[in-house]
Amino acid sequence: MSDQKITGILEYILRHATRHELELVGEALRKRMERESTLGMGQIDVNQMARDMAEDIGRRMGMNGDAVHNMSKRLVADMIRLEKPDIPERELQALINQWVPGAGGKRQGGIPRDMLLAMITQFVAYSLGEISEEEKKQFPKDWHKKYWEAFPQEIQLLIRDYILGKIGKNQFWKGIRESPVMSK
After folding, report:
1. pLDDT for position 171
2. Whole-number mean pLDDT of the chain?
3. Of residues 60, 159, 147, the one with CA closest to residue 111
4. C-alpha span between 159 and 148 (Å, rounded)
5. 152 or 21: whose pLDDT is higher?
6. Is the pLDDT reported for residue 37 higher than 50?
7. Which 3 state secondary structure label does DSSP give 112?
8. Residue-level pLDDT at 131
9. Which of 59, 83, 75 is nearest to 12 (CA)?
10. Contact at 8 Å (CB) between 78 and 17?
11. Separation CA 121–CA 115 (nearest Å)
12. 43 and 138 in contact (C-beta within 8 Å)?
């Protein structure tokens, strides 16, 4: 496929795709990753795949990491504005900064924020029984113990409270986003 076609597709996805169309793209990517993992491609590191894809998009479009990061911020801003068109600019910027932290941002222990979020999501889904037996087979032995030990104490407390039903889903994710660990 030519660079021009790819750029056109990406521009459509980033600027014009509806929520439903974005969900379809996400589902197509998920199915593709599942298919490749069942074809003996081994475990797929979704976070690495996303980073590689962002780098590839940047190279194809002649953009550096900052430009890709800024594009991500614009996409998130557009999605927020679709949901809440009258959002004050200050609130919008706060949300963007929470969901699209500085490029390559890392938390205290050296785990990139996006990876930490993925780890939290996987751990919680596993703990709530939302991961299929097939998916469980893709994780290395004792992964959940390693994840738990890697989580800072404040994240552990939020996860524990959520799993035990002491806090709801929205309160849990708000706590994760607002955690000082996620802003470092």
Report:
1. 93
2. 74
3. 147
4. 10
5. 152
6. no
7. strand
8. 83
9. 75
10. no
11. 10
12. yes
Residue predicted with more confidence, 96 or 168? 168
Helices 113-127 and 143-150 meet at what angle, rounded to 10?
130
Q: Model confidence at 39, in pLDDT bands (50, 70, 90)?
A: very low
Helix axis angle, 3-15 to 19-36, nearest 10°: 130
Token code pair at residue 150: 């890697």
Cα dist. 131→48, 94, 159 in Å? 21, 32, 16
pLDDT of residue 53: 57
Taking the CA atoms of 128, 129, 134 and 140 in sequence, report the sign of the dihedral they define.
positive
CA distance 95 to 80: 9
* Residue 127: pLDDT band with limits 50, 70, 90: very high
**DSSP class per residue in 121-158:** HHHHHHHTT-S-HHHHHTSPTTHHHHHHHHS-HHHHHH
Collapsed DSSP state (helix, strand, coil) of residue 111: coil
Where do runs of H (alpha helix) occur along the chain? 3-15, 19-36, 46-60, 65-83, 89-99, 113-127, 133-137, 143-150, 153-163, 169-178, 180-183
Q: Given its phi and psi angles, is residue 2 left (phi above 0), alpha (psi -120 to 50 degrees) or beta?
A: beta
> Which amino acid appears at position 49 of this protein?
M
